[in-house]
Amino acid sequence: MVAALAAKKGVPPRARRDSDKEARRRELLDAARALFEATSFAEVKMADVAARTGLAKGTVFLYFPTKEALFLALLDDLLTAWFAKLNGRLSEGGGEWTGPRLARTVAASLEGEETFTRLLALMQTVLEQNVSVEQAQAFKERVLVSMGTTAALLQERLPFLTPDTAGRLIRHVHALMTGLRQMADIAPVAREVLTLPHMAPLRVDFTAELTAAITTLLRGLEAR
């Protein structure tokens, strides 16, 4: 009866089965991503997410109690996917690599991943500020597992890395990704200013700068 009344009003019926709930959760994450890519985190409202999916605003809050919880879940998905992508590239072929090759591989794995790196830059300062301990721990646990897998692959490619330095390398790459993304993701008015010829030293090519920074970082680790 409830489902029939909801259908008459144009509101999707409440998801009952686990598969339906997961499909609806995925729909909400996709809507949040589309809105974020078109604007910014600050501009996205939960009401906008609800409207894009055709759901009542209250239904959105049943799945994600806060906007931060919604976007941390999106970042969780994107981060997991990126680690899998990077691990796949690190697993290609065999033998030892050079530092520059590894740097290029990491930087290239982030091409087309602007949504991921933009959200990553908001992780500590915004997304983790208004979520439950349970969600934060589940997120960190998955990050820890992914880091462990990647660290092992890094040690295979660069034997001078130890378990400790491989983990530190991943943390430093995270810091570089975050900082360079913020520097590259500038406001339209600043972008216009940087078109002036003498402003060239302030322009940031994310991929090129990240490659150079990781290469320099690896040289320092190898020299120890």
Question: Which key terms come to mind for this protein?
Answer:
disordered N terminus, globular, 11 helices, mainly alpha, 224 residues
- How many distinct helices? 11
Rg, alpha carbons: 21 Å
Provide the succession of SSEs: HHHHHHHHHHH
Structural class computed from helices and strand pairing: mainly alpha
Estimated share of beta-strand residues = under 5%
- Share of helix among residues? 55-70%
Shape: globular
> What is the first-to-last residue Cα distance?
70 Å
Chain-averaged pLDDT? 91
Q: Which residues sit in consecutive blocks of at least 5 with pLDDT less than 50? A: 1-9
Largest sheet: none
- Overall strand count: 0
Please tell me about this protein's structure.
With 224 residues, the protein is an all-alpha fold. The model is unreliable at 1-9 (pLDDT under 50). 70% of the residues lie in helices and 0% in strands. Helix 5 crosses helix 6 and helix 9 (163-184) runs antiparallel to helix 11. The protein has helices at 2-8, 18-38, 46-53, 57-63, 67-90, 99-109, 114-120, 133-157, 163-184, 188-193, 206-223.
